[in-house]
Amino acid sequence: MILKASVFIILFTLFVHWETSETKSQRDIGRASLPPRGWNSYDSFTWTISEEEFLKNSELVAQRLKPHGYQYVVVDFLWYRKKVKGAYTDSYGYDVFDEWGRMVPDPGRWPSSQGGKGFSEVAQKVHSMGLKFGIHVMRGLSKQAFDANTLILDTTTGKAYEEAGRQWRAQDIGIKERTCPWMRNGFMSVNIKLGAGKAFLRSLHQQYADWGVDFVKHDCVFGDDLDLDEITVVSEVLNELSRPIIYSLSPGTNANPTMAKDVSGLVNMYRVTGDDWDKWKDITAHFNVARDFSAANLVGVKGLKGKSWPDLDMLPLGWLTDPGSHYGPHRNCNLSLDEQRTQVTLWSMVRSPLIFGGDMRKLDDTTFSLLTNPTLLEINWFSSNNMEFHYVTGSLSSSGKHGLTHHSEDREKINVLETRVLALRTCRDVKANGWSTKVLDNDLEQVCWEEKSNKRKAPFCLYKRAALSASEGEMVYKHQNHGNLHLLVTERREYCFGATSNRKLTAKELSRGSFSRCRSHTNQMWELNYNGTLVNSYSGLCATMDIVKASSGGVRSWLATGRRGEIYLAFFNLNNQVTEMLAKISDIAKAIHTKSSKCTGREVWSGNNLGAIKDSISLSVKAHGCALFVLNCK
């Protein structure tokens, strides 16, 4: 009896320890103290998903992925748009909104929303599955609500917002000159300097909380579309709500660490690239970004009521649709298995949120094993000292030539192409001070960027002219100060230079700005300051001309330490052919500040046991593939 009692006590103690650890992990997810995991509808449905399709995917997430920490299920954009002939991603006149100008679910696709219920019944069903419910929202106010001039709700009184003796409406707060450039028929900024503007944003997120929303993905407010004022107000509103809501920003085209430092404490996760799709170049575009954000110590820092995480975007694996499609999932992922392994390994080593985008109804065994690989999930949640590891060499097996080799000057480097592109930075960045005025004949003037490091290089110049005024048939930007310049490629053309693209960009695409017919949209308005900065009125960011080095291949490596003392080492072969990669144990020890010299280990994807490792680790890595080592060193 004593032996049985002792065994029972030991087993009970182990169970309580496991349950406490698991419960703590689940509780931490809710505070974003760990990188969030979940599922999002965009990669498989774009905007067309229905209530039935969403709930079935949620049910399968609960059954198959929830045991592995995937907790959020998110409806992506345009859930308020009627799925009828003529409706598409930037159509006008098909959205459903309430008397206060707030979007509500399309009852044709979301029948449980009828009778003013919104997403409340969907959220209840999701919660009954043990999951958290999320939605995608756009910046500010919809153009339809603006044109309808709806009243603004004051959530403190339940009535129309009143100030200065009158009721306030949508046209009092909407800024038509600040519509989202890639969705101009959709949404515009609101003037948050007005009490009514803040009241409108408060009414939106109070409604989301009332529905039972746990996660808000806020679009067209970060990266090139930065609207720090709106992010700040929304963060303040969410902080005041009694219901905890994870705050996510999207997309992050041209985002950089300096920009991120302004928002990381206000949110829980934020995208750091354009949209990631199942293209190899989209994956490779994330390596430099991941390096820069990790080096800036922005991974897992203090955020909104928890922590914040740079987000490399959803995982477009499994059964998918196409970007901008009006149809649901209809094809397999275009990435090879080696490329998929590279993606999930990088996302895990970087500790990015893991949000799966494929249709759960056709989740195959290979995709499931990638999403639930125990080593990757351990690294994603519990590793530390995550960094790009520079001391790795790569030689192309067929020719013996070396690929990209960090900090080894005796190696032959791969070809690198340099491209000069427009970039947007915070105006505090010293690299933004490089613009000046050049006076030409016939009273013409140009605004020019001159390379500080290369005076011999011809400056990049655009012709300038006064911005359009109301007398020329355009609305004046009445709410805030704005730039007074339009920039043109020639003195005669009627096409002006805008800071951001007129379409949504993918991760591999660099924003070079765009030329379109001149109008008074703030995306085309600029102000040249005496200190040499050129400020864009849409985002408040400053323009620079950056030199971007685009390589066609090479090798990369990442390093991290585990909570039990293990070391994680990842090799990534970006070349188009098999590459022999090598790292020295002494260099690994220096990077993690240890004197370890004797190691044993295994490689995750092959399952091979490496045995005792003497001086170095080397492996032939397939084209676009990776290797992941778990090392135990003394």
UniProtKB/TrEMBL annotation:
Q: Which Gene Ontology terms cover its molecular function?
A: alpha-galactosidase activity
**Keywords, ordered alphabetically:** Disulfide bond, Glycosidase, Hydrolase, Signal
**Positions of the Alpha galactosidase C-terminal domain:** 553-631
Reactions catalysed: Hydrolysis of terminal, non-reducing alpha-D-galactose residues in alpha-D-galactosides, including galactose oligosaccharides, galactomannans and galactolipids
What EC designation does it have?
3.2.1.22
InterPro entries per UniProt: Aldolase_TIM, GH, Glyco_hydro_27, Glyco_hydro_b, Melibiase_C, Ricin_B-like_lectins
Extent of the signal sequence? 1-23
Q: Which Gene Ontology BP terms does the record give?
A: carbohydrate metabolic process
Family in the record: Belongs to the glycosyl hydrolase 27 family.
Can you name this protein?
Alpha-galactosidase
Q: Which organism is it from?
A: Anisodus acutangulus
